[in-house]
Amino acid sequence: MPKQFYALVCVLILVQAAFLSGCHSIHKGIGLQNKKVYLGAASIENSASYANYLQGSKSEHGKLYYLLDRVKESPNLDYYYKGNRYGWVEAHLAGSWILWRHYKRREGARAFLRREVSRYRNPTQTAYIRFPDGSKHLAHDILLNELDLLEYTFQKEPLPKVPVLLDRKPSAIQSLSSHALSGGFLSPLQLSSRSASFLYKPAER
């Protein structure tokens, strides 16, 4: 009897460990039913981010600005880097800084993501996104999904149904807390409030 009892306990412990491991695992942009996961709704034809893209140059550089707009349109997501949690404002600011400082003229959007974002897939610098349902996905893979969705939508329907533009100077960004500028995710970027305000000046695309 004792041996059977201990065997049962061991089985229950292993099952619980496997369950907890699955709950905390970080996926690669593929969710239930083997479908791609996006920052927001998969239907973007009427979104402000898509309208902004169509109003711009529609270049590879413009695709990266589109990704930033999608981050802004999805305020209910949490962004994690080295175990620390950040909101969309901090993620948007960090992404804008990286794009402003590291983008090379005429570089492809995917090449840029591969060079700048894929580095955060290693265990010590994992950057991932936590969705409202509790699932976690690598940021790099979600952004690639977003590019696929943008290009598919543009081929299918190049004109927007609703010409609404996204304001690129939200008050929330202009009133960033000192934490957003000096702590966690942004500290390696060594942002100052002066350079942060520069990022949100109108830029040519």
Give a description of the structure.
The chain is α+β, with helices and mostly antiparallel strands and 205 residues long. The chain has one domain. Helix content is 49%, strand content 8%. It contains nine helices and five strands, in the order H-E-H-H-E-E-H-H-E-E-H-H-H-H. The chain has helices at 2-24, 48-55, 60-72, 88-102, 109-116, 139-156, 171-174, 178-182, 193-199, and strands spanning 26-27, 78-81, 84-86, 127-130, 136-138. It has a five-stranded mixed beta sheet with strand order 1-5-4-2-3. Strand 2 and strand 3 (84-86) form a beta hairpin. Helix 2 (48-55) packs antiparallel against helix 3. It is globular and about 70 Å long.
In short:
By secondary structure, the protein is an alpha+beta fold. 49% of the residues lie in helices and 8% in strands. The protein has one domain (26-190).
